[in-house]
Amino acid sequence: MPNGAADSQAFPVGLFTFVLHGAGGDLAKRKIIPALAHLAQRGHFSEHSRIVFALRGPANLTEFLEEVDQFLEMAGDETSRKLLPGIAPYACVCDLTLGSGDAKQTLDEAIQGGPEPVVHYAALPSARFKDLIDCLDEVRDPARLRLVLEKPLGRNGAESAQIEQVLSSKLDESQIYRIDHYLGKQAVQNLLALRLGNRIFEPLLTREHVAHIQITVAEDLGVEDRAGFYENAGAIRDMIQSHILQMLAIVVMEPPVSMQADSLRDEKLKVLRSLKVPAVVGTQEIVVGQYDQGFVKGQPVPAYKNEKGVSPDSVTETYVGLRTEVQTWRWAGVPILLRTGKRMPRRFAEIAIQFRDVPKPLFDAVGGHWSGNRLVIHLQPQDKLELFLLAKSPGERERLKPVSLDLDFFNTWRIPVRDAYERLISDILRGRLNLFLRRDEVEAQWKFVDQILDGLKAHAIALHPYTSGTYGPPAATALALRADANWSEDGICSG
Ligand code: BG6
């Protein structure tokens, strides 16, 4: 039996009613419904559990599942297509227009007689959250009612606070699952295990030993057909505000006193509250850009401004590279570089920790360039850890060269990695809040992001165009060099 086989055993999640709001949308079809299908196939659902697909307009279940099947075919997700019929025994559809006069009654009828807890999953733009919350009864009991909210919560801290106010009028914090699917990725959980289950790295993760940290989420895709959302969001709200700040918090937080949700969240919160806002003028610590036409994987692609649904004079950023700092005793002074962009040469996400050089080099470096140790946590396309150590290169001379110790988790466990949504939905049904965000974390994230966005606006900071198929504007390279770093490219970087 391979090492992790026991983990694939089904632990049934018990009875529930799961209402998917926005079931006809892209996220629901691409991620949430496939995740439900995979859970059903693993035998996680009890016989009388109920899944309600809330759709705007009349539909029947067979037609809706056919529509999802066609969507998955177009997306090339053959595995989920095969599993889709497994949902049918639990599922029904409901014609629901949130905000309409009879919405509450329609929703009440759809869930009537279904088992508790009732989980409402809002795969909706946050502008619609209030309409959904208006339909909920004030039931302050997580065993009876849970609500899942997709990010971003609002467009800024003020909008987010308004939503939170409405939420708290009906629900307690223990009922609210603010989802960030990056926390459901296996690699992020491996990161927690690496830091908190091993002694080896933890003592080294301090300002004495770390030269800099960089986090990259690079995407080869453009805005696709999400211009309506993206034009209002941009890379800072879409990726930095939650995904990247959450990963950063997990890398640099103090060890929590336990793995309970609030212990973890307390430690992440301290990090989020101690972030230095990048300077937008003077020694520039942030570069924003927008992709121009170019070639990605050999195919010509249009400029962002020419994408369907995008305004020809759009000033939405599709790239951001920034330098921050965690202003704590452990981390003060260590440059933290964060970067994300669309239409880059390839899709990869990683967290790279560059260690300082030895205090006095006793060896020569191959190629004359000395680069210290580096730990890279790869999130995608592969889930793996790589540790670059300096080893003596073969031959007479005492010259060192970085070699990589490579730990590929797929090769280790030989179990297909579960999609982040599958893991997170299973946690929601089990009532586990560890991998979800607490209200104060979201507030701290917005505070950081609002200050950046306000600064960029106040100083009319211009977007740097970058050619599609490159790793972003040259100004961002200079930003990294000022921190004695190079951005990682194709998984290769140097400090
Ligand atoms: C989403 C963003 O939250 O994450 C998208 O809205 C982005 O713009 C996506 O493409 C990236 O997720 P993943 O899991 O594909 O890296």
Outline the secondary-structure elements.
Blueprint: E1 17-21, H1 26-41, E2 50-55, H2 61-75, H3 78-83, E3 91-95, H4 103-111, E4 118-122, H5 129-134, E5 145-150, H6 157-168, E6 176-179, H7 186-196, E7 210-218, H8 227-252, H9 261-273, E8 286-296, E9 299-301, E10 319-324, E11 336-341, E12 348-355, E13 364-365, E14 374-380, E15 384-392, E16 399-408, H10 409-413, H11 420-430, H12 439-458, E17 464-468, H13 474-481
Parallel strand pairs: 1-2, 1-4, 2-3, 4-5, 5-6, 7-11, 8-17, 13-16
Antiparallel strand pairs: 7-12, 8-9, 8-10, 10-11, 12-14, 14-15, 15-16
Bound molecules: 6-O-phosphono-beta-D-glucopyranose.
Question: How would you characterize this protein structure?
Answer:
- With 495 residues, the protein is α/β, with parallel strands linked by helices.
- It folds into two domains: 5-179, Rossmann fold; 183-418 and 438-494, Dihydrodipicolinate Reductase, domain 2 (2-Layer Sandwich).
- 32% of the residues lie in helices and 22% in strands.
- It is built from 13 helices and 17 strands.
- The strands form two sheets. Strands 7, 8, 9, 10, 11, 12, 13, 14, 15, 16 and 17 form an eleven-stranded mixed β-sheet that branches. Strands 3-2-1-4-5-6 form a six-stranded parallel β-sheet, with helices on both faces.
- The longest helix is centred in the middle third of the chain and has 26 residues, at 227-252.
- It is globular.
- Mean pLDDT is 93; it is low at 1-10.
- Bound molecules: 6-O-phosphono-beta-D-glucopyranose.
- 6-O-phosphono-beta-D-glucopyranose (BG6) binds next to loops.
